[in-house]
Amino acid sequence: MRHSPRVDCTPDSVAGCACSIVGIGESAHVIVLHPRGTSRTGGLSRGWWTDADDVVAPLDALHVPSVSVLAHSAGTRLALATATRHPGRVASLALITPPATWLCGSPSDAAAIGAARTEPEVVSALVALGEDTATTDADVDEQFQRQAPANYAKWTERERDHARVGRVSLAAASAWFHDIPAEAAERIRSAPLPTMTVIAGDADLLTGVQPVADYAAAIGAELVWLAACGHYPWVEQPAAFRDAVTTWLGRD
Predict the structure, then answer these.
(1) In which region does residue 104 sit, left (phi positive, over 0), alpha (psi from -120 to 50) or beta (all else)?
(2) Rounded CA gap, 95 and 80, in Å?
(3) Contact 188, 219 (CB under 8 A)
(4) CB 12 within 8 A of CB 38
(5) Beta pairing, strands 67-72 & 30-32
(6) Mapping DSSP to helix (H, G, I), strand (E, B) and coil, where does residue 38 land?
(7) Would you call 223 helix, strand, or coil by DSSP?
(8) pLDDT in tens, 141-183
């Protein structure tokens, strides 16, 4: 193998699917991790900070000293926790459209970005993003579908099809944030982290733009912007996403 194994640290293994969709697995050996609380594992997460132990467990079983980790969205928290709590086990990180304000403290600029969007579905989705009233799985799913148009730079049939994939569990989502140390962000920012690349969309209303730039600066990561791209770059900009990940892989 020219490249070391990759571990997908996404809560729903979206990044592993992304690797397959854009053909990254053709040039790298990909190991997809299905964290606790996902459909293939069952149960519930112990919180992304503690679940970092689950990333290194298969490496120990496979006698692999270190890997480069590609993670998407909420999974970037798990990836950073792994690099922080298990120094030396993560050779490099590719952090895809990461939520940022929790780490850098910058306020979201999603409203300013979204002001240019006039599609009725997107306008309604932006309102829904500010709602947090779900109390059942059915509520969460319904709310997710209303928010979905804001996840993408465009709202065409391609994006609509992607938004229908998967399901949402309120219990699983809540457990992901269970028992996180109050000083987790500070520990990450001050840790001797490996080489990192942040790949972000310039129209991502979920993460914003300035917070992601501040996030990358806070952890010393290279920042790659994908134009006309929302939260799922392999859906909207697969060629540019593949180029960015391939470049990251080539730096190992």
Answers:
(1) alpha
(2) 9
(3) yes
(4) yes
(5) unpaired
(6) coil
(7) strand
(8) 888 888 999 999 999 999 999 998 887 788 888 899 999 999 9
pLDDT digits (tens, 9 = 90+) for 105-139: 999 998 899 898 888 999 999 888 887 777 888 88
Token digits of residue 240: 């540019």
Q: Which two tokens stand for residue 157?
A: 């049939």
What does the chain come to in residues?
A: 252
**3 state SS for the chain:** CCCCCEEECCCCCHHHHHHHHCCHHHCCCEEECCCCCCCCCCCCCCCCCCCHHHHHHHHHHHCCCCEEEEEECCHHHHHHHHHHHCCCCEEEEEEECCCCHHHHCCCCCHHHHHCCCCCHHHHHHHHHHCCCCCCCHHHHHHHHHHHHHHHCCCCCHHHHHHHCCCCCCHHHHHHCCCCCCCCHHHHHHHCCCCEEEEEEECCCCCCCCHHHHHHHHHHCCEEEEECCCCCCHHHHCHHHHHHHHHHHHHCC
CB 218 within 8 A of CB 106: no
